[in-house]
């Protein structure tokens, strides 16, 4: 089976470009030019150089011995938290800023939830000297204050969005409105594998460096490039897309995505789209959505601002539908326990988002010789306030 | 099959006034009353907005009215219920405008059939793009005598405008959005060039200009270049809790049709 996007921008029945005509010219230009640009040797040279010298790649693949002992199975952590700016998000923004410059765009807009993508976008805009505007839900502005300050210090304008639930979905709506109103000079750096084609494929390609490195590092460390399974958290799903990408056709490798259950998938306060959702169209993509029978989008909930999204990338909707990947959900409570466990077993404080993948270790059967790779997508620095309040240190 | 939109453009070729309102706003059950009053005051065509939780192509006014309408309890099912007997009292063309997802959940075929049954003449679904419409839905629309009204913008290329004109029926919705003011040109000059360019293309469909039309001057200017113009946000924001619907509509339409 083919799990990649087809020429019409679909992954199975999911994806496409359900855009209003006002976005057509920009999306059409991207669609026509993205592959030619990002596959050119000039682009690849610049991209790889920046990933190495600026982002700090390759990120280590770390054998977590005390955590492995705890679970009685071999656990490796792909340390995306050690990237510059503290998460995998920079892989994508580096790619997109280079692309935007090739397209002659001089103004960058982005949406952000936890602020990691906002910081990663503000960072590359500072690096290239380009104007940067970041839309962020007003609730997220208040719960992710350090990242807001970082973006401002980097020279970005942060615009709080007061509509809807004041979170990631609403920030995305507002960024799309900005692009509709500024169709000529602006490039929209979407932070995840969501939105109209070609974004899901383009972002997945930029993030695929994660699984490319995993294969090389696993071969060196274990003698085989194929682990038993790869685990990654999923909101929109960009870190999971990157971690799964080069394993999609290696059917012997189990792929597990972990969504945010919030207070539980059987409560109204959840963001586990695949557990409670149905097919629909949001943010210009046909995918699985949390919605009412009338087709109105339901406000999601998660303790983690980065997973607080009522949809999911169309690639993951298809991996779910075809059964190629398995999707689980972890509650806020389980996630916080997983944060503490990793912190005290390995001396690594993970981001709330990434800890969803760690929490899944309690939910799966692992044999002693299994090789489990967890994509540790981000650092917990941005979540210290939440941790300190919860754990009472 | 006769469609009221075609009949309208056959008998009237300029100064067509089309008004948009959000169903369920300001009050849940104002829908029929607003439609009746708009017709009574001389409006030619009405766009009934079905609210959506995430109106990405709309500005703050329609975002707010949509949010309130949903809070009031509006849904596509209820809207169809409210419009069930609308053709007993209203004869001007009615178009449903909204986002694709509620229609998709209702079922596109069921939606088109319901529109036909009630006497809805067209639909404007901005996030149902041309290629998806042509591949999946155009025959269903046609079978139900429902026009799919497509949009063009200042950025739409000539080749694509021709393609849209071929696939579209009823009229073409010309988005006036002049946010891009090419090489040092003023907004008005840029817009004038765009309006004239479209006028000179002599499209098969009539054109109606929308976005940024709010008073007699902007209405009259748009009508110089197109068959008519659409007013949305300005009408929606004219509602005021203290005033009756009759008075609001009468006053608003009067202001649009007569110079200040």
Structural description of this entry:
The complex is a heterodimer of chains A (393) and B (260). With 393 residues, chain A is an alpha/beta fold. Helices cover 42% and strands 18% of the residues of chain A. Chain A has 16 helices and 14 strands. Chain A has helices at 24-38, 41-55, 65-71, 89-102, 116-128, 138-143, 145-153, 168-181, 199-207, 209-222, 238-244, 273-276, 314-322, 332-346, 352-359, 384-391; strands at 10-11, 14-15, 61-63, 74-79, 107-112, 131-137, 157-161, 186-188, 229-233, 254-262, 278-282, 285-289, 325-331, 371-376. In chain A, the strands form four sheets. In chain A, strands 3-4-14-9-10-13 form a six-stranded mixed sheet, sandwiched between helices. In chain A, a hairpin with a 2-residue loop joins strand 11 (278-282) and strand 12. In chain A, helix 5 (116-128) packs parallel to helix 7 (145-153), helix 9 (199-207) packs across helix 11 (238-244) and helix 10 crosses helix 11. Chain A is globular, with a radius of gyration of 19 Å. Chain A starts with 9 loop residues before the first strand and ends with a helix. Chain B is of the alpha/beta class. Chain B has a single domain, classed as Aldolase class I (TIM Barrel, Alpha-Beta Barrel). Chain B is built from twelve helices and nine strands. Chain B has helices at residues 4-11, 31-40, 60-72, 76-83, 100-106, 108-118, 130-143, 158-167, 187-200, 216-225, 233-236, 245-257; strands at residues 16-22, 45-49, 94-97, 122-124, 147-148, 151-152, 172-175, 207-210, 228-231. Chain B has a nine-stranded parallel sheet with strand order 5-4-3-2-1-9-8-7-6. In chain B, strand 4 (122-124), helix 7 (130-143) and strand 5 form a beta-alpha-beta unit. In chain B, helix 2 packs parallel to helix 12 (245-257). Chain B is globular, with a radius of gyration of 17 Å. Residues 180-184 of chain B have low confidence and may be disordered. Classes of the chains: A alpha/beta (393), B alpha/beta (260). The A-B interface holds A 16-22, 24-25, 163-164, 169, 173, 176-177, 180-184, 280-284, 289, 291, 293-297 and B 52-59, 63, 67, 70, 75-77, 99-106, 126-130, 132, 150-153, 155-157, 160, 164, 175, 177, 179-180.
């Amino acid at each position: 089976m083919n799990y990649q996007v087809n020429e019409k921008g679909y992954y199975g029945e999911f994806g496409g470009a359900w855009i209003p005509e006002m976005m057509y010219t920009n999306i059409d230009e991207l669609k026509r030019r993205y592959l030619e640009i990002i596959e050119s040797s000039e682009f690849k040279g610049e991209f790889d150089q920046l990933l190495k010298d600026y982002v700090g790649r390759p990120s280590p693949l770390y054998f977590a011995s005390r955590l492995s002992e705890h679970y009685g199975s071999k656990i490796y952590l792909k340390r995306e938290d050690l990237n510059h700016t503290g998460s995998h998000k920079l892989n994508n923004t580096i790619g997109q800023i280079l692309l935007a410059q090739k397209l002659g765009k001089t103004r960058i807009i982005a949406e952000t939830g936890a602020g990691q993508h906002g910081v990663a976008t503000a960072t590359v805009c500072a690096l290239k000297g380009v104007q940067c505007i970041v839309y962020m839900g007003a609730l997220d502005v208040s719960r992710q204050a350090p990242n807001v300050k970082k973006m401002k210090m980097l020279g970005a304008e942060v615009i709080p969005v007061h509509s809807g639930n004041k979170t990631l979905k609403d920030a995305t709506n507002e960024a799309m409105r900005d692009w509709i109103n500024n169709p000529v000079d602006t490039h929209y750096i979407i932070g995840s594998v969501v939105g109209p084609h070609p974004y899901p494929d383009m972002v997945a390609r930029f993030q695929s460096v994660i699984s490319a490195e995993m294969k090389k590092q696993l071969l060196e460390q274990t003698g085989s490039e194929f682990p038993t399974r790869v685990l990654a958290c999923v909101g929109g799903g960009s870190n999971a897309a990157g971690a799964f990408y080069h394993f999609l056709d290696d059917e012997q490798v189990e792929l597990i995505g972990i969504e945010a259950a919030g207070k539980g998938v059987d409560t109204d306060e959840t963001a586990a789209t695949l557990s409670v959702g149905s097919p629909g169209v949001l943010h210009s993509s046909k995918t699985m959505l949390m919605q009412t029978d009338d087709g109105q989008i339901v406000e999601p909930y998660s303790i983690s601002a980065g997973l607080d999204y009522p949809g999911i990338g169309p690639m993951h909707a298809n991996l779910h539908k075809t059964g190629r990947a398995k999707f689980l959900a972890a509650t806020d409570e389980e996630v916080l326990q997983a944060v503490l466990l990793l912190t005290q077993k390995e001396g690594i404080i993970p981001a709330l988002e990434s800890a969803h993948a760690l929490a899944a270790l309690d939910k799966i059967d692992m044999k002693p010789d299994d090789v489990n790779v967890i994509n540790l997508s981000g650092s917990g620095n941005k979540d210290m306030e939440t941790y300190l309040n919860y754990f009472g240190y | 099959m006769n469609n009221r939109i075609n009949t309208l453009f056959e008998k009237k070729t300029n100064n067509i006034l089309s008004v948009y309102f959000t169903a369920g706003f300001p009050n849940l059950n104002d829908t029929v009353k607003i439609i009746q009053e708009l017709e009574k005051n001389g409006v030619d065509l009405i766009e009934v907005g079905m609210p959506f939780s995430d109106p990405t192509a709309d500005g703050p006014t329609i975002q707010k009215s949509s949010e309130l309408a949903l809070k009031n309890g509006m849904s596509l099912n209820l809207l169809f219920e409210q419009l069930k007997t609308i053709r007993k009292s209203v004869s001007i063309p009615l178009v449903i405008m909204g986002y694709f997802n509620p229609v998709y959940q209702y079922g596109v075929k069921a939606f088109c059939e319901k529109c036909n049954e009630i006497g809805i003449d067209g639909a404007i679904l901005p996030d149902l793009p041309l290629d998806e419409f042509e591949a999946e839905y155009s025959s269903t629309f046609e079978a139900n005598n429902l026009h799919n009204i497509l949009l063009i913008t200042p950025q739409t290329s000539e080749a694509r405008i021709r393609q849209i004109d071929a696939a579209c029926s009823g009229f073409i919705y010309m988005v006036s959005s002049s946010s891009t003011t090419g090489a040092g040109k003023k907004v008005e000059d840029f817009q004038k060039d765009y309006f004239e360019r479209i006028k000179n293309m002599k499209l098969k469909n009539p054109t109606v200009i929308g976005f940024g039309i709010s008073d007699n001057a902007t209405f009259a200017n748009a009508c110089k270049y197109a068959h008519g113009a659409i007013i949305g946000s300005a009408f929606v924001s004219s509602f005021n809790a203290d005033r009756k619907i009759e008075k609001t509509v009468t006053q608003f339409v009067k202001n649009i049709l007569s110079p200040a």
